[in-house]
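DM from R.C. (forwarded with permission)

"hey, sorry to bug you on a friday — could you get me a structure for this? deadline for the figure draft is monday and I only need the backbone to look sensible"
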Amino acid sequence: MEILRIEKISLNIEGRQILRDMSLSVEANTIHSILGSNAAGKSSLAYLIMGCGDYTAQSGKVLFSGEDITNLPVYGRAKRGLTLAWQEPARFEGLTVKDYIAVGMKNRDDALIAESLHQVLLEPSDYLERQVDKTLSGGERKRIELAAIFAMRPKLVILDEPDSGIDILALDNIINMIKTLKKTGQYHNINYSPEEVSEIADVTSLMCSGSIVHEGKPKEVGKYFRDKCIPCPTKIFSDKENCA
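My reply, with the result:
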């Protein structure tokens, strides 16, 4: 069953074409990674799916669980079970970690809040009463954001660079958390996937200059990317071409 479909989406920002007639399908109960070089359009795609700011498609559709959400605001998409983990998490002065995690939960569950922190290698007794502010490191804020998503139980999670700011010790736990969410019925579109995260995906799509150019099993697509894809900012190439 399909959870997300992008149909021929084009996105232009300040006269620059970011996404070019792009299509993508994400199946339910799968981990779908998107691989690509910097400036390929991965984060822009994530913001467009979530309905952020100026990321409004000039053409095409975004379908979520069969419903056209192309023109819905962020809160409308969130109510339907769609969420985004930012590459750079925000700070919230005056808000405790436990309250931050609880905000997105349908029913507050303190045991689940504690479990979510354990999932990202943070000791609840050390963090529940701390403020989500500048006293936390970037890595701590990233882990807390991922913990909040674990507790939220959305239908679809878009993870923008899930390894960003995460130390090597915690990365294995983040990967295990993603696997656990899949087992509990959550669905994932990992917007950017380093090799360690991409390996756990069911499907990997290769993105170049705003289009999906190749798709398949993670190892095969990763090898294709390393062997054949030389980043090129101006040319869209097919899966039979090199970008030179």
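R.C.: lifesaver. The CA atoms of residues 88 and 142 lie 7 Å apart.
me: no worries. Confidence is low (pLDDT under 50) at residues 231-244.
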